[in-house]
Each structure stands twice: as structure tokens, then as C-alpha cells.
Amino acid sequence: MKKRRIPVVARILEANERVAEENRRRLAAAGVRAFNLISGPGAGKTTLLEATLPRLKGRVRAGVVVGDVDTTRDGERIAALGVPVVQITTRAMGGTCHLEAAAVARALDRIDLSSLDLLFLENVGNLVCPAAFDLGEKSKVTLLSVAEGEDKPIKYPQAFRVASLAVITKIDLVGPLGFDLGALRENLRKVHPRLPVLELSARTGEGMENWIEWLVRG
Amino acid sequence: MKKRRIPVVARILEANERVAEENRRRLAAAGVRAFNLISGPGAGKTTLLEATLPRLKGRVRAGVVVGDVDTTRDGERIAALGVPVVQITTRAMGGTCHLEAAAVARALDRIDLSSLDLLFLENVGNLVCPAAFDLGEKSKVTLLSVAEGEDKPIKYPQAFRVASLAVITKIDLVGPLGFDLGALRENLRKVHPRLPVLELSARTGEGMENWIEWLVRG
Predict the structure, then answer these.
(1) pTM of structure
(2) Beta-carbon neighbour count of residue A87 at 10 Å?
(3) Which of B3, B28, B112, B144 is deepest in the core (most CB within 10 A)?
(4) Interface pTM (ipTM) of the complex?
């Protein structure tokens, strides 16, 4: 089974890469910086965007492409903030466990890129598959909630190796969980020694300024 | 790309199904009940097993097959309990995001099934892909931590539709999170109305007896 499978996977990744490069050119031509947000389910991608978008208002013009297996729930949460949003549900694509460049290309057709400076591509909640699929983004941002445990970077290394930034979310739970932030930082260093790391809580607002500055500075 | 891809996926799933049926026959012949544990990263599969295995001692003889993309960390945690364990890392299979029946078949070769009543198949941390791959288990148990949010059953419905039991983990965090257990139960009912649900904390021990009874009764 494996012998048959690997060439197919390589072809899919090559086809994806070509479309991703088209997306990248198109975004660059429009002056839009795109960030591919990757995490496991429930790390808080949508909640972070809900806390981020109002703070960006008046500084940069942001839009969102939201990917989910099913439901348009996340897209509705973002739309409620009055921000341009396109929802992709991968159910029609066989419940694909990640966004692909072709789906993002179709989403870009439905957004006025000239009205944006920044575009978030909120991936499907999955810490494995999205790491392999370039969407044409400027950079990947991988989120991890402290509720997921200190060892996740070494167990899911690829998602952190391909990232330009790691965001540790829900740090208001460090106390209740007895979470060891030092151990997490050490595990991040093991898989990607120079990866910048931000720690924040979208709920309390702690650490949000650094994230906003990172986004605004580009 | 999609047109080319779907028949390939169907062939992979069919091949997997054949091997899964062989695994199922082999496990049944040995009188071993196997449970396929599915969850996103950090929902607490390994921690639940660490709390479960000592409580099963003297009642049922349990072993574990552990799947991870990388590292043998989870396998080492289980081995420390003096329980038969086989670790599968999917890195050699291209970093596959789920266990497949063929890998489990090879793991079964390395375990003395006659010494077991029960076998846990701890899947890769992923709430999407493992739901599509039968491993030959008696039933699938899908875990969800309260830190992941109330909406996850409707966002990742397949993992709950294929399950025989849902286990809500980390309920000691309900208070600190302001988590709405009622909303989660309602969302579980929407995707799988008759799915039994257990709520527990492996850390405090709350709810563990019901889980142990479920396992022992079969």
C-alpha cells in the first residue's frame, strides 16, 4: 500500500505547490500579507482572531479565510466583527483535514484584495496535515494551547519547523493546570531553535500587544 | 486534482478495511477486546491510560499500542507502568496523521495476545483523519478535553459519529474555564444522539470508576 501511495502524495503536493505560488504572487501584487494559522482543535484560533481583529482596526485592514471540516460557525463568529470573511468547508472535498491552495485560490476570488493589508488563513484544526500544504501565505503561525501539554512540539515537530512564529495560547490556564512554560519553551527550541515565541491569553488580553505589534510590523 | 484523488483514497480505505478485518478476527480469536482511542493533540489519551492501567490491574489484563508521528515518549510513559506496549511512529510512513490497520497488524505480531483481555490502540492526536481508518478494533472511543471548547463535536462530527463512547476529559478545568458542559452534551447529541458520554478527570480521579466499569463490563 505504501509503495503505491507515496508517488500519489508527491503529485498532490506538487500540484498544490504550483497553485500556492500563484496565490503568493496574487497576494503580493495586491500588497496583502497572508498568515496561515495552524493548530490542533480548540487551541483558540478563532478566539484569537476575535480578540485580534478589533485591535487591528484603524491600523491595518484585515480579512479572514476560515477552513473547517463542517459547519460555518467560525466564519459566522468572524463575520459578526464586520470583517471580510470567506468560509471554506472541506466536507465537500471528502472532509479533507487541511486547507489546500486550490480552495484558497477560490476563496481569494470572493474577497476584494485591494481593500486589505493582511489576510488570515485559519486552517482546519489539525496539528499534522496542514504543515505539509503551502497555501501561498507569507508565513505560517502555529498555535498551541497550554492545555495541550508541554510535549506537543516534539510530538508534532513539523507544524513548528515550518512556522515563522509560535503562539502559546490560554496562558491564563498556566496556574490552574500547573503548566510548565519553561519545559514547553525548551521543547520548542529542540525542534526549531530560532523560532520566535509569543505567549498570550485572548480571554484576559495578556500578551496581546506583542502579537498585534508582530502583525502590524510585518 | 480532486478527480484524480478520490479513487486513490477509496483504494487506500478498501485495502485498509481488509487488513482491519484480519486484525479483528485475530483479536477475537485471542479473546482480546481492542479499543481505538481517538482525539485531538493533548486531549489526554496517554494521561487517561496512565490513570486507567493501574486501576485495571487484577481485573483485566491490558496492553497498549501507541501511535505517534514522532518520538516514543508516550510508549515510554506506558511502559513505565509495567504493561505490554508497542510504539508505532508514523514518521517512517511519511508522517502519517493516523494509525492504519497494516501498522497495527505488525504491532500485534510483537504482543503476546494470549496474555491479554484488552488492548488499547492509542491513535495519533488528530480529530479528523483517524475517524476514517478502521484498525480492527471492537469499538472507537473518542476523547475531547473541555479545554477544546463546546463546539468541537459539530465541527469534527465524524470522530463522534463513528464512536461507541465519548469521553470528556479534564473536567477539573470546567470551573477555571467557565466551560458549559450542557452545551457540549447538546452538541454531542446533535451529531450522535445515542452516544454514551462519560465525563472524567484523570488528574483528580473524578469519574474514573464509570470509565473502568465500562471497560471491565465490555
Answers:
(1) 0.90
(2) 20
(3) B144
(4) 0.85
